[in-house]
UniProtKB/TrEMBL annotation:
The keyword Disulfide bond does not apply. Residues 1-17 form the signal peptide. Keywords: Signal. It comes from Halobacteriovorax vibrionivorans. This is Outer membrane protein beta-barrel domain-containing protein. SUPFAM superfamilies: OMPA-like. Coiled coil: none annotated.
Length: 190
C-alpha cells in the first residue's frame, strides 16, 4: 500500500485531465463487523453477534475530471457512537474511530456516476479490555448524483458500499461500511 498510493497520486496528477478541483463534504457511515473465532483444535468455530454502529464524518480532497470519468482522492475521518459488543456472557462498551484515504473513479453518465474505488482505513478501536489500532483496505462500489450549480461548482450526494476482511490465525473478521455522502466540488477551470 505504501507504494501503491504514491504511484496512484503521481498518475492522477500527471494525466491529461481537462479539469482539476477540490471536494469537501459530510458523510454518515454505518459500520458492521462480523467475527468468527477459529478453533485451532478441530472443534467448531464460534460466530460472535454482529457489531453495528452509526457515525458521522467528513472528507476533503482533490478531483480530476475528464469527459467520461471523475476521480476523487480524499482524506476522510469518521467517529462512531459508543455501542456495546457482546462476547459470550459479557458486554463490552466500545469507542470506534477511523480515518484514512479514499480513492474513487466514477463514470459520468449525465448527473449519475456509478463508481468504484478503495479506502485505506486506519482504525482506532478502544474498550477497557483490549484497545487496538489496525489498518486495512476496503473495496468500494457506489453511486453519486452530482448536480451542476455553475460551470465550476457542483453539489453531490451518494451511497458508497465498502467491504473487506481481516483473516488471522485465531479469527476471521468481515468489515462492511455503508456510507451516505453529501458534498461540494469546485473545479479550478471551466
Amino acid at each position: 500500500m505504501k507504494v501503491f498510493l504514491p504511484l496512484f497520486i503521481l498518475v492522477f496528477l500527471t494525466s491529461c485531465a481537462a479539469k482539476y478541483g477540490i471536494v469537501a463534504g459530510a458523510q454518515m457511515p454505518k459500520y458492521e463487523e462480523d467475527v468468527t473465532i477459529i478453533d485451532l483444535f478441530g472443534g467448531s468455530d464460534t460466530d460472535l453477534e454482529p457489531y453495528t454502529t452509526d457515525g458521522t464524518g467528513f472528507h476533503i480532497g482533490i478531483s480530476e475530471e475528464t469527459d467520461w470519468l471523475l476521480t476523487k482522492i480524499s482524506y476522510y475521518q469518521n467517529t462512531y457512537s459508543n455501542e456495546s459488543y457482546k462476547l459470550e456472557s459479557s458486554t463490552i462498551k466500545t469507542d470506534l474511530k477511523e480515518s484514512g484515504v479514499m480513492g474513487t473513479t466514477g463514470f459520468k453518465l449525465w448527473w449519475f456516476q456509478p463508481l468504484f474505488g478503495f479506502k485505506y482505513v486506519s482504525r482506532e478501536y478502544s474498550n477497557p479490555q483490549a484497545p487496538s489500532d489496525t489498518n486495512y483496505i476496503l473495496w468500494t462500489l457506489g453511486m453519486d448524483i452530482e448536480v451542476p450549480m455553475s460551470k465550476r461548482f457542483y453539489v453531490y450526494g451518494g451511497y458508497h458500499y465498502s467491504s473487506g476482511s481481516d483473516l488471522d490465525i485465531t479469527h476471521d473478521t468481515e468489515f462492511t461500511v455503508k456510507t451516505m455522502v453529501l458534498g461540494l466540488r469546485y473545479n479550478f477551470s471551466e
